[in-house]
Amino acid sequence: MRLGVQVLISFVITQHVRDVEIMLKFKSFFCCGTLIRNKDTVQFRIRNIRDLSE
After folding, report:
1. 15 DSSP β-pair partners
2. E strand or H helix at 44, and its extent?
3. Tens digit of pLDDT per residue, the chain (54 long)?
4. What are φ and ψ of residue 19, in 5° steps?
5. pTM for this one?
6. pLDDT of the residue at 34
7. CA–CA separation, 36 vs 12, rounded Å?
8. Which secondary structure element, helix H or strand E, spans residue 38, and what is its range?
9. Measured between alpha carbons, how far is residue 16 from residues 12, 21, 41, 42, 47 in Å?
10. Is the separation of the CB atoms in 33 and 26 below 8 Å?
């Protein structure tokens, strides 16, 4: 049995859904990341370490 720790790095910006256009501009500007929409919020998230380091 193998136990360990996993470290994840991410860059996240959260805004109200009314600002989804701004979040789309972030995605376009950085040419990476994903948009995640919840009930009242939208998140721009980058999880790839290569994308974060450029």
Report:
1. 42
2. strand 41-46
3. 778 888 888 899 999 999 999 999 999 999 999 999 999 999 999 998 787 776
4. -100, 25
5. 0.77
6. 95
7. 10
8. none
9. 13, 11, 4, 6, 21
10. yes
